[in-house]
Amino acid sequence: MKESVVNPLHLTSLNHVSLICRSVEESIDFYQNVLGFVPIRRPGSFDFDGAWLFGYGIGIHLLQSEDPEKLPKKTEINPKDNHISFQCESMGAVEKKLKEMEIKYVRARVEEGGIQVDQLFFHDPDGFMIEICDCDNLPVVPLVGEMARSCSRVNLQILQQQQQQQLRVAQQ
Question: What's CA 85's distance to the chain center, in Å?
Fold first, then answer.
């Protein structure tokens, strides 16, 4: 069996997600007014249209499509599609707001060991899937070793230290 290498690239965090858009302006409006991201300065040396937004510790980089009509048009909301997920304080408040904004969404629920996680899935203007959840209810459990904290409180360094210690013990 191949030996597991803990953080071989020495990663520290997720920096941003890039999304190709039919209309950067429509996408800015969505990410700013629906999800609460804030537009930030983008390097002026880029020779293509786009925008950068920031919120919740990550960036969203919007890139104007060179041929917007060729972008696939997604209408079906499929929770198994590629998506980015955000945790929220109140699923009820999120669902109420989505209804007020007339944004179509799909509800889902995950159950594990008596713990329930509610999820809402919807699309941005270009069909990219967004999930809002109360995933913090579900603990992150490494496949080997002790139980970690909940999703929003996982400390990568603690997990890495546990994995390294387990590797050392296994090698002895």
Answer: 4
Q: What is the mean predicted confidence (pLDDT) over 17-45?
A: 97
| Whole-angstrom Cα Rg for the chain | 19
Identify the burial level of 38 via C-beta atoms within 10 angstroms of its C-beta, where 0-12 means exposed, 13-18 middle and 19 or more buried.
exposed
**pLDDT for 50-68, tens place per residue?**
999 999 999 999 999 999 9
DSSP string for residues in 40-108: E---TT--S-EEEEEETTEEEEEEE-SSGGGS----S--TTSSEEEEE-S-HHHHHHHHHHTT---EEE
* Whole-number Å distance between alpha carbons of 132 and 130: 7
131 is known as an active-site residue? yes
pLDDT of residue 153: 47
Give start and end residues of each alpha helix (H) in 63-109.
91-100
| Nearest residue to 88 (alpha-carbon basis) of 33, 14, 12, 151 | 151
Tell me which of 95, 102, 131, 146 is the catalytic residue: 131
CA dist 11 and 9 (Å) reads: 6
Helix runs in 10-146, H state only: 24-33, 91-100
